[in-house]
Structures are given as C-alpha cells and as structure tokens.
Amino acid sequence: MSEMMRESLSALMDDEANELEIERVLSRIADDPELRQAWVRYNMVRAVASGQHPVRLDLDVSAQVRAALGGEGHRAAGLRQRWLRPLASMAVAASVAATVVLGGQQLAQLGTTGHDSQAIASSVSPVGMVNSLGATSVQASYGTQGVPVLQPATRTAYQELARQRLHKYMQAHAEEAALNSPSGLVPFARVPRIKE
Amino acid sequence: MTVKDSFRWRHLFVVPALAALTLTAARAGADACAAADADALAWLDKMSRSLQQVSYHGIVTFQRGDEMQAMQVSHSIEDGVANERLTELTGQGAEVVRVDHPLECVHPGNLLLQLGANLQAGECGVAQFYRFGVVDGQLVAGRRAVQIRIEPRDMYRYGYILELDRDTGLLLKSATIGRGNKVLESFQFASLSYSGEATPAEGAQVVHEARHSQPGNGVLSLGGAHPAWSVNWLPQGFTATDQPADVSMRRTFTDGLAVFSVFLEILSQGITPGEGVVRSGGTISYTRGMHMSGMPVLVTVIGEVPLNTARMVADSVAAVP
User: Fold this and answer.
1) Which residue of A58, A194, B206, B296 is surrounded by the most CB atoms within 10 Å?
2) ipTM for the complex?
3) CB neighbour burial string for B275-312, b if at least 16 within 10 angstroms, e if fewer
4) B84 to chain A: which residues are within 8 Å by CB?
C-alpha cells in the first residue's frame, strides 16, 4: 500500500478524510488486494475487540460497500440518485465516510447472514444516509451498542463534555506521560491549569 | 502509607505486561529490524537513559498551533536520586516538582526504549511499530544534534522528529507529526547547560508535586463501590504504565513514545449515547457516553494518539464480570 493510500485510509478512520481521500480509497479498494486486506484487518481487529465473531479475512467488503454507495447495480444507483445527489459535497463526504466505516463494522454480521447484496446494502447504508440527511453532518458512533443518531443539541453537549473532561483529566494524564515519555516534566505544559 | 510517602516510590517497578510484549517482539524476528532502525534504537536507548542520569537545566519552549509557552526546567542527580523542576515562565506560572526519584526506578515507557542486549539478539522492540531514520541534525540550544525521524507503521499512532544531543543523548527537540506531515506540537530547548545551578524562577503561585504512580494507587478513584472494568483493545505495542486497582477510574498506556489515558465515570442517571471530540495540539480528548452492563457511563480517552485509536479504545471498555 502506498504511503498516500495508508494516509487516506487513516484519515477515513479518523473522520478527517476529504473528498479526494475518500475518492482515492473507494477507487482503489476494488482493485488493490493489499488495501482491501488492510481494510478488512483493521475492522476485524475491531470486531474481535468488541466481542463479535471473528470475521473471515477473504470476505470481499469492497463490492458490498460499492453497492451500498451506488457504485454498481440498478437498485443502488437509484439510491444514489435519490439520496446523494442533492446534498452538499461535504455532507456526501461525511456520509460516505460513515457508510464505509460502518460497512466494515457490519462485517461480523455479514459473515453470518450470507452474501445477499440487498440485505447487505440495507444493513450498511442506513446510518450513513440518515446521518447525512440531518441538519448537520453527524458523526457516526461505531460501538457495539447501536449507533445513535445525534441531534445537534446532543452533539454540542458531547463536544462540551469532551472539552470539560480535557480540563478535568489532563493533569492526571500528564502525571503518567511525564513518567513514561522521553521529555521529562514537559507533558505538564499541556495541562490547561495546573492544580496543586 | 501517607500521601507524601506514596510520591517517593523506591522500588523498581516493572509491569508484567512487558513480558508479553517481549515475547511478541522475539517472534517478529531479526529481519524486521533494519540497520537504520538498529542505529535509531541505540540512540533511543541512550536518550531514555540520559533523561534520568544526566544533570541539566535550561529554558524549554512548547508550541501548539499559534500558542507558545516557555518554561524553565532543571534535573539534578544527587546520591542516587533525581530532583526535577519545571517552572512555567508564561501563562499560569505554575511549578511542578518531583523529588527523590530513584535512578533505578525505570517506568514502562522508558523500558520500552531500552532494548540494550535484546537489540543485539535481533529484537526490534518499538521498531515493529515505527520506521526510523537517522540523519545529522542542526544546532539546538547551541548543541550539535542527531535527528531521529520516526514514522508509524500503522495508523494508531503519530510520527515524531526527535533531535538528541550528540554527546549526551538528551532529547533537545521533539515534534509530533500528524497526517500530511503536519506538526501538531513541538518542544525544544532554547538554552541548555550541563553544569552549574539553575537560577530559580520567582513567584510561582502554584507548586505541584508530581505524583508517582504505583500498583494499586487509584489516583482518581472516587471512593465507594465501583465496578471493576477493563480496556479490551489496545494498538499493538501498548502496555499499561502502572497497575491501578480495577476500581480505579483511570488506566494509562504507552508504547514508549505515545501515551494515552482512559477515564471512566459512572453516571447517576441515563445519558443519550453519543461521542464528542476536542483537540489541542497533539492531544485528543474523546468522550463517549454509553452503557456498561446496563449502567450509564462516560468513557473519556485523553492522549497523544489519533481519533480512531481513542474511539476504538473507548469502544472496548467493558465491565469485568
């Protein structure tokens, strides 16, 4: 896998992929066995980690993802026309990222429900589609406990929670970082307000 | 044991998880260990030892985005113990001190970089997870430096450019590199001296004595009965920095270069599941509301790792049955 491709894949997993990067991954995933393997492997680790059944490595996720995205097949193309075209480009990018990631997440289930492409498409696509059609481009959550569709207020609240936790816990994190990384006490410089 | 005593931890402290890591490393075999990596690993080994064993003082700058901080640091060795001090010269002006840290007390993060004889035996340690390059560096704080370029082999960690003192191995400059070669944060010495005494900076309003973690020390344990919990997925090569009791609300992990911590809060009332992210330089704060064995909990991952890593780690938090 090229360095650029690894970066694009990484960006996709971090919700930081731009359109170009998403395009890059999608255009190559069908033809690049190494990329596909990497993709499946990353997701397999997750599936195993979250207590789902191990996934077969030879499962071809790309065709399913492409079908879900409308890359092929009449039904999928219809979906694409109906759902994707009217959206702003960044919203499309967000939905594609969510769909691809969640597509990977569904691997364990796919492994047990067979290869019916319609079932796969419907199990893969709704989250990405639903999220991107909301008022905001909502990030998907990839947990084992279902994927909440966040309302804008909830989303803002969670961002605020993350900000508050950064203040609350940064010093405790810095204590450990100072003992375990090569820069001495410097990790304390990251603490917003040092407490005695 | 008093709180004060707990700061002065005098025993060598090695986490058993390291043994598992060593086995993994041995299995990877010698071929994974390129010549450039071996050279870099020797430098990293020297760096992690000099961090403890060299006396120095100087001025350090720390930069995140447009924000620049300056601080005075000193590290002195006396009678087999190290005394350290960091005084902020900008912003809050707080001071952090660590006294009587025994030289033989080596923490997991540093042990991971000290391959020594294992390297001769073809063991590559962190080279399984990073690719290294070694080139001549420029002057940093008037010292000739060697530059170690560190690139992650997977997407679960950041890259680094480290500049070490050619003579002492001390880390003079460090930049954390994100995707697209973006510098997320960096620190470097502006001035450095290996002799003489540091002139103490004046007027620190807040003096914090750095903690020293140890097995069973649940720093953030809230008291009362809490469920045992564990983190069930880590990127390869990460190991626990300490051994808090299961009920401790914090877990911290390191691969020798990156560190992240996981915090758990049990909520008294239900929460709409979701996630939130805030970034500051190389640090991410990822908070996830979810249910653990039916209990509403908030899991927060804070550290110098990419979002995806934080998310996957948070996702793997579960109650220990």
Assistant:
1) A194
2) 0.86
3) bbbbbbbbbbbbbbbbebeeebbbbbbbbbbbbbbbbb
4) 184-185
Contact at 8 Å (CB) between B318 and B230?
Answer: yes
- Percent of chain B at pLDDT above 90? 51
Across the 196 residues of chain A, what is the mean pLDDT of every consecutive 10-residue run? 75 70 72 70 54 43 47 41 38 40 32 30 25 28 41 76 92 94 92 91
- The one-letter amino acid at A41: R
What is the distance between the alpha carbons of residues B297 and B307, in angstroms, rounded to a whole number?
20
Query: Distance (Å, rounded) from C-alpha B153 to C-alpha B158?
Result: 10
Distance CA B310, CA A167 (A): 17
Indicate the DSSP class of residue A83: I
Using a cut of 0.90, tell me whether the model's pTM lies above it: no
Q: Which residues pair with B174 in a beta bridge?
A: B162, B187
Longest dimension (CA), chain A: 65
Using a 10 angstrom Cβ sphere, with 0-12 exposed, 13-18 middle and 19 or more buried, the burial of residue B199 is exposed
Which residues between 156 and 175 in chain A have a beta carbon less than 8 angstroms from any beta carbon of chain B?
157-163, 165-166, 169-173, 175
